[in-house]
Amino acid sequence: MTRESYPSARREDLVEEIHGHRVPDPYRWLEDPHGEETKTWLTEQDELFHREVDGLPGRDRLRARIRELLGAGTVSTPIWRGERQFFMRRTAEQEHAVLYTVDPEGTERALIDPMALDSTHTTTLDSWQPDKEGRLLAYQLSHGGDEESKLYVMDIATGERVEGPIDRCRYTPVAWLPGGEAFYYVRRLPADQVPAGEDQYHRRVYLHRIGTDPETDDVMIFGAGLEKTNYYGVSVSRDGNWLTLSASQGTAPRNDLWICDLRTSPLEAPELTAVQEGVDAETGLYVGRDGRAYVFTDRDAPRSRLCVTDPASPSYETWRDLIPEDPEAVLSDFAILDDLDRPVLLAGWTRHALSEITIHDLETGARIGEVPVPGLGTLGGISERPEGGHEAWFVYTDNTTPVSVHRFDARTGELSLWASAPGAVEVPADVETRQVAYTSYDGTEVRMLVVARPGDGPRPTILYGYGGFNIPLTPAYSATTLAWVEAGGVFVVANLRGGSEEGEEWHRAGMLDKKQNVFDDFHSAAEKLIADGWTSPDRLAVSGGSNGGLLVGAAITQRPDLYAAAVCSAPLLDMVRYERFGLGQTWNVEYGSADDPEQFEWLYAYSPYHRVREGVAYPATLFTVFESDTRVDPLHARKMCAALQHATSDAARPILLRNEADVGHGSRAISRSVDLTVDTLSFTAAYTGLTIVSRPADPGDDGL
Question: Peptidase S9A N-terminal domain spans which residues (predicted)?
Fold first, then answer.
C-alpha cells in the first residue's frame, strides 16, 4: 500500500492555545458525523477496509471455528424469589441470551427473548430485577446499541407487560418495596430541564408506584442540587425496613452512603442517616436477615474488608471487622448461609487475578474452611436464597472452560455442577495457561497470563490489556483467544496497574497523574515476552478496547518499534477533548480534566492523537468503531486514523478503519461478534506472520 491509496483527508491549520501550549487539531472536522465530508471519508475508508481485509487467507476456516467455540453458549447463576428461580442462558443457535424462569412446580419458560422482540437482533436486554415475591419483573431494553434503556414491568405469571416504557433509564438500579406495589429507581431529568449538551447527566432517585404515570406522579426523593455527573445506587432490605442510597461522582472510586429506617420515615421523603460522606473510599451496606448491617469497604483497606454494625447507628466508629483485609488477596464478594447449626459466610477473593472462596463463622468471621473450586480461574456471582438457606451458587470459567454454574452445599461441604454450558465444544487438551511475573520500569512487579500450546521460538502473539477504572482482567473462556492459540499463536493478558487485580492502591497507581504507569507496564510486558522468546517485535500485536483502546493508542505512539500490529476498538484517543463527548465528563475522576492546567499537562503528555509524528513507521493498525456508541464517541478513532494514515512511513503496514452501524459499546448479537472477530484476527494474523490454513492444526503447527 502507498500513502496515496488512503482516502483524502483535509488537514486544517487549526491550532489552539491551551494553558500555554499550542495544540494542533488538523482533523477536527471529522468530529462531525453528519458532515458530507465526513460521510464521504467514511465511505472511502469502508471500501479500503474491505479491499484489504476481505481477501485475507483462512477467513472461512476462522469463521467456522469461532462459531464452533461460541456455540458453547452461556448460563448465569440463578436468582431466587421463594421457590421461583430466574437465570440467563444462550444456546448455540441463539443471537442473544434469554431470560428464563422456573416456576415452583418445575416448569421452565422464557420470560424475555430479545430475538422474539426484534428480528434484526439489535435489541438488547440491559438489566432486570424481580420483585421480592417473584410476581413482577422490572426490566430494561435498548435498541441499536445506544444503551438508552427503557424500563418496563412484567407480570411474571402471565408474561404480560403492565408498565412502561419509562425512558431516560440508562444504568438504572431498581429497588422493589415488599408487596410489589412500588419501587425506587434512578432516572435522568428531561433534556429540556438541563443545560444544552448535558442530557446524559443529571440523574435523580424517584419513587414509582405501579399503575401511576411516571411523568406526573413519580416523587423525586434524592439528587437535586448535587453533582450533575453523579451516579446513584439504591436498595431496600428484604424485609422492607431499610433503604440504602449511595452517590458517586462519575466513575470515582469513592462514594457517599446513607441509610434510612423506612418504618419511621415516609416512603416519599425518607430521612437519611449518613454512613459516610466526603470520605475517599468506596463502601456498600447490606442489611442481613439477622438485622446486622454488613459493610463492604476499602476504607483503610485497599484490598477491601467486610465489617458489621448496627443499621440504626452505622457511623464509622461502630464498624467491627468481620473479614479483615488480606495482605495479598482482594475481597470481591460474599454470601450468607444461615440455615445451619453454625451459620457461615462465604467470602470470594481474587489472588493475583485468580479466584478462591473461603468459609467463615458468621458471628466471629473466623475462617473455618474453603470451597473446593473447580480450578485456577474466575468465580463470580455468588448467590443465595433471599430467605436464607444452606446453598450457594456461583459461575466458574477459565481460559479453556466455558462458563458453568456450581452449587455449594454448606451442610455437606460438597460442590456439584448445577448447570453446564448449554453447548458442547472441543478444546485442544494441550492449551496451557501460565502466570508470568515481570518487572515494570519503576521496579513494580506485574503479572500476565500467557495462553499457548507447546512450541518453540518466537511466535505470533497478541498482547491484550485494559488498565483502568478498577476493572480486573481474570481468566475467562474466549473464542478469540482459543481460535488464535489453536492456530499456533500466543495470547497474553496483562494485569496492568489501573485495574483492581491487586486492590484499590493498584487502581490508583494507574489513574490521573500516574496513567503513564499503565503504559509502562504494557511496554514492559512486551519486552518480557520478547526477552523470554515467546515472540519478537515483528510478530507482536497489541489489542484493547475502550480504555484499552487508549492503551493501544499510547502503545503504538510511544513505542512503535515494539509492535507489528494493533487492534484499537472503540478507543479514547484525543485526551484534550474527550470530556466534551459521550460520557466523557463522568471519567474526569479517572483521567483528569483538560480545563485544569495541571491535569491538562498529564493528558497532553500521552494523548495518542497528539503524539502522532510524521515519518514514523507505525504498526499495521485496525480501528474498530460502532456508530451507535454513546459512551466513547467514534470521532476519536476517525481523527486518529486520519492522522496515522498521513504520518506513517511504512507503506507495507496499513492503517484501516472498520465502521459498524446499529451496534454500540456494549453487548451485540453473536453473528456480529463472529464477523468482528474474523476481521480482527485475520488482520492481526496477516501482519504478525500467523498462517491460518483450512485444516485442523496439529500441536506445534503455525496454522488453524
Answer: 7-419
Roughly how many angstroms between the first and final C-alpha of the chain, as a whole number? 27
Please list the alpha-helical segments (H only) found in 532-664: 547-558, 588-591, 597-606, 608-611, 635-647
Look at strands 461-464 and 490-495 and give their pairing: parallel
pLDDT in tens, 271-297: 999 999 999 999 999 999 999 999 999
Q: Return the sign of the alpha-carbon dihedral for residues 61, 64, 68, 73.
A: positive
For the chain, percent of residues with pLDDT exceeding 90: 96
Best CA proximity match to 67, nearest among 686, 680, 675, 473: 675
Task: For Cα atoms 303, 309, 314, give the angle at the middle one, nearest 5 degrees.
Answer: 100
Residue count of the chain, please give it.
704
pLDDT band at 5 (very low <50, low <70, confident <90, very high): confident
Q: Would you state the pLDDT for residue 692?
A: 87
Cα distances from 448 to residues 361, 373, 469, 510, in angstroms, run 34, 22, 18, 16
Catalytic choice (500, 546, 628, 682):
546
Dihedral in degrees, nearest 10, Cα atoms 549, 552, 553, 556: -170
pLDDT tens for residues 256-266? 999 999 999 99
Residue of 202, 406, 507, 665 marked active site: 665
Distance CA 299, CA 504 (A): 10
Number of H helices, E strands in the chain: 12, 39
CB contact at 8 A, 168 and 147: no
With 0-12 CB in 10 A as exposed, 13-18 as middle and 19+ as buried, what is 608? buried
What angle separates helix 59-70 from helix 670-688, to the nearest 10 degrees? Answer: 130
Would you state the cell numbers that stand for residue 190, as one nine-digit string? 428531561
Residue 143 annotated to the active site: no
Strand-pair category, 620-626 with 565-569: parallel
463 sits in which H/E element:
strand 461-464
| DSSP label at residue 497 | B
Annotate 261-301 with three-state secondary structure: ECCCCCCCCCCCEEEECCCCCCEEEEECCCCCEEEEECCCC
Based on the residue annotation, tell me whether 636 is a catalytic residue of this protein. no
Cell 420515615 found at: 265
Strands (E), 9-51: 15-18, 21-24
List pLDDT tens digits, range 387-443: 999 999 999 999 999 999 999 999 999 999 999 999 989 999 999 999 999 999 999
Per-residue cell: 452:
499457548
Instruction: Calculate the CA 351 to chain-centre distance.
Output: 20
